[in-house]
């Protein structure tokens, strides 16, 4: 959610933390922290009119990253796209 929610790092800040914890007093938001070991990784490769997109769900455990799920889609783009 870090990329999609506008969050950076593991500490809660401004609006994103308030949106995730609406019942927390704004004065206490600096004491709120969150994190995750699960991430979504997206990639896109284009070669001529062929496009290969891949989305993976990965889990980080220290320096080790394990792919839990992978989805690939291959398409041809129309001329002018």
Structure, described:
This protein has 2 helices and 3 strands. It has a 3-stranded antiparallel β-sheet with strand order 1-2-3, with no helix packed on it. With 81 residues, the chain is mostly beta strands.
Short précis:
With 81 residues, the chain is mainly beta.
Which keywords apply here?
mainly beta, 3-stranded antiparallel beta sheet, single chain, 81 residues
Alpha carbon gap, first and last residue? 30 Å
Any idea what the shape is?
elongated
Give the total of beta strands: 3
Number of helices: 2
Strand order of the largest sheet: 1-2-3
Mean pLDDT: 80
Secondary structure topology:
Elements (H helix, E strand, L loop, with lengths): L1 H4 L8 H7 L17 E10 L2 E12 L2 E13 L5
Antiparallel strand pairs: 1-2, 2-3
